Amino acid sequence: MEIIEENKKSFVREIDVFDLLKQLWNSKLYILFIIIIFFLWSLFYLKDQPQIYSVDASVIPTKNNLSSAPNNSGSLNSLINLSLGNKGSEGANEFNLYLSSFKSRVVASVIAEDKDLMKRIFSNEWDQEKNSWMEVKPSRVQSFKNIIRQFLNFPIFGYQEPNIDRVELLLQKILIYSEISGNSNNAINYISVKTSRPQLWIDLIEKIHNITDNFLRDRELERTSEYINFLNAKINLTNNLAQKEALIRGLAEQLKNKMIASADIPYAAEIYTSPYSSSRPIYPKMTNTILMFLISGFILGCFGTFIGNFVYKRIKSIK
């Protein structure tokens, strides 16, 4: 008896599956219609989506940051209680500072002063005829956010002309999508930016590199100049031979650092691979997008068929 009952249940399941397949076959034109609608939708979707490219570059520490110079400042520090640092030990920190400065306000301030570059970055807000910035209406998403903020009594910020704050925020957003990998002390560090305006960001990465490297160079020149003046003054004041020798060694080290910073070569980092753009958009993927829409259309068509037949049978049974 149990075998017979099991065979009956299996037969019922087979009938159910056959019935479902029959429903799908009878509604094939409806399902095909839904698939065509989704196919057309995918084309409009692809047309409206910006084509995103990958802009990549790589940087490496300069040789003066990789070399480990002898530490001549130990005796000097012990003699006059002064810490001048050491180029070999600070090189890695210089390069880490270089990487972190990409999104700093220092870089943003220099970019904000370049009006031509600002016009390129915020091109949709520049009125060429009036030669001024024009207010851009908030997007639908931003308008919805403003409604929520107003309901919660949160402050609503209006339009703000492109300035240092907006540039800094933009750089921070870019670095969220950037990939910096490798050992920052001695390896290649990769920078990747996903953007719909590849040429702009090729130029911008080079600009940021120059700004950051020059800022660290000027910072080092200022510090070494102060150290040199201080050491010269100390040398003239001391008569202790050991102390004078230590001061002279420290002075030589600072002169060396100043010479490195003064050279017309990259200071903290140099570009290993110049910024370049991917030859094809990385997003959206046309084939994957269309396939996703077609599958969604098929699933929705099948679901609609089952729901429609279920409702029809219920109505028919009531009558």
Would you write up a description of this structure?
- The chain has 319 residues and is mainly alpha-helical.
- The chain folds into two domains: 2-49 and 285-318, no CATH class; 54-103 and 180-277, Bacterial polysaccharide co-polymerase-like (2-Layer Sandwich), CATH 3.30.1890.
- The chain has twelve helices and five strands.
- It has helices at 2-26, 28-48, 63-66, 73-80, 87-100, 105-113, 115-121, 140-151, 164-176, 198-237, 241-262, 286-318; strands at residues 53-61, 126-127, 132-133, 189-195, 269-277.
- Strands 4-1-5 form a three-stranded antiparallel β-sheet.
- The protein is elongated and about 115 Å long.
Give the secondary structure arrangement, pairings included:
Elements: H1 2-26, H2 28-48, E1 53-61, H3 63-66, H4 73-80, H5 87-100, H6 105-113, H7 115-121, E2 126-127, E3 132-133, H8 140-151, H9 164-176, E4 189-195, H10 198-237, H11 241-262, E5 269-277, H12 286-318
Antiparallel strand pairs: 1-4, 1-5, 2-3
Helix pairs in contact: 2-12, 4-11, 6-9, 6-10, 10-11
